[in-house]
């Protein structure tokens, strides 16, 4: 009958050890955060500029300029080290070349952006080149999140390039010759002159063009059709006299006319002298125009 008395303390030790293990386990659990608390403390990316909930009148004005002024794309640079960084060379309204960078804080080298404004060149790239909807709030944000940049670039990469946003071929070639930029878009769009047949007539005077090779020009912008030089000069003068756009008499596409301009004195690369489609305007401050318009 003494055996139970000797075993009793051992049972007490077992109980004490078990209690110690339980207490230690509880202490460890209390010191370690739960998985739910980890999820609650997950870091959320912060926008580097204040979010704009609505579009201001000034931004609306710049969106209108981005859609309606003559802005064109020269080159695109995609960084191999940074998936959310792209650089674009833009031919501005005055034929100056600006660099637009789309990343967390979109930027541009133009004077308007230097004054702290979201310029038309950034909006042009976002909407016309990267295909961000013009009604999207991303158009007028001064800073973009990583998720937004990934969405913009992924969507843009799935779409075909829009040739209408490209600067004309001679300007792109001139830009490449001056800078050697390997990212310039040099896809050829040359139009071939059509062969003059025996029954072909000038679309302006309706006379034959056979045996008159030295007095022939053709539409090098679009259709390749031929006409007399002196006839076209009269056509051009008539259009200009009533302030109408000079076009090809047949396809009605804007006619290429060689334009001479001085190099921009403000330090920007200016390619107006290489344009063959339109005269470029003198540079006007977008902020000045906005303040005086409104």
UniProtKB/TrEMBL annotation:
Residues 202-252 form the RING-type domain. It comes from the Eukaryota. Residues 98-130 form the SWIM-type domain. Keywords: Metal-binding, Zinc, Zinc-finger. The keyword Nuclease does not apply. InterPro entries: Znf_RING, Znf_RING/FYVE/PHD, Znf_SWIM, Zswim2. GO terms for molecular function: ubiquitin protein ligase activity; zinc ion binding. It holds the Pfam family zf-RING_2. Coiled coil: none annotated. PANTHER family: PHD FAMILY PROTEIN, RING FINGER AND SWIM DOMAIN-CONTAINING PROTEIN 2. This is Uncharacterized protein. It comes from Adineta steineri. The lineage of its organism: Eukaryota, Metazoa, Spiralia, Gnathifera, Rotifera.
